[in-house]
Design brief:
Layout lengths: L22 H25 L10 H21 L4 H11 L10
Helix pairs in contact: 1-2, 1-3
Amino acid sequence: MTQSIGITGATGVNTGLARGETRANLEKAGKQFEAIFTGMMLKSARQAKLADPLFDSKAIDTFTEMQDGQVAKAMAEHAPLGIGKAMTDFLAKSQSDLNPPAG
């Protein structure tokens, strides 16, 4: 008999052996993946500076990074690109008990 230990980290996603066993946990991971992906896109867009900023400092850079992180989380939650759902659906295909019933 195998016993799975459910450990929840700071992300809210189960990091134990049973982390892929529930659809809800898989969907949380998909949303977090979406947020990370969106954050990387925003960071790349910021690095492609089209003009010199009026005020340039380390504090503004730090604030901008924090703001982009929050914007990415909000976008993943309210207006997702769909990459997180695609990843969730792809991973759920391998586990028939995680697939939503066809109807």
